[in-house]
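Work Package 3 (structural annotation) set out to generate three-dimensional models for the target panel prioritized at the project kickoff. During this period the team completed the workflow that converts sequence records into discrete structure tokens, so that structures can be stored uniformly alongside our sequence database. As a representative example, we reproduce one entry of 102 residues exactly as it appears in the project archive.
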Amino acid sequence: MKDPGIEKYTASFALALAVSSLLSALLVVIKERNADTLLAWMKAATGHHWISHGILVLSLFVVLGWALAQIGVGARLSGNVLSGIITGSLVLSGLIIAGFFI
């Protein structure tokens, strides 16, 4: 039986997850280092900085996943490659946050 491969939306949103995860980690560091500017703006925008954080990251995930699907990025990637990219991104994101707070 022929391997049908991974559909374009699956691959595109997997890549969007990897990018969004890294952005989320970097946003944690940036807003903690800029409490008087960015963190204050994020608090003022939605009432709490974590709500703003979630909206930004979720928006990036949806828009980037859709955009990558439209241009066909990731269509040739295998499941193992995508799993590796996601795993690497999540581990790196965790290390960024842990490294900052340690």
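Residues 8-101 form one domain.
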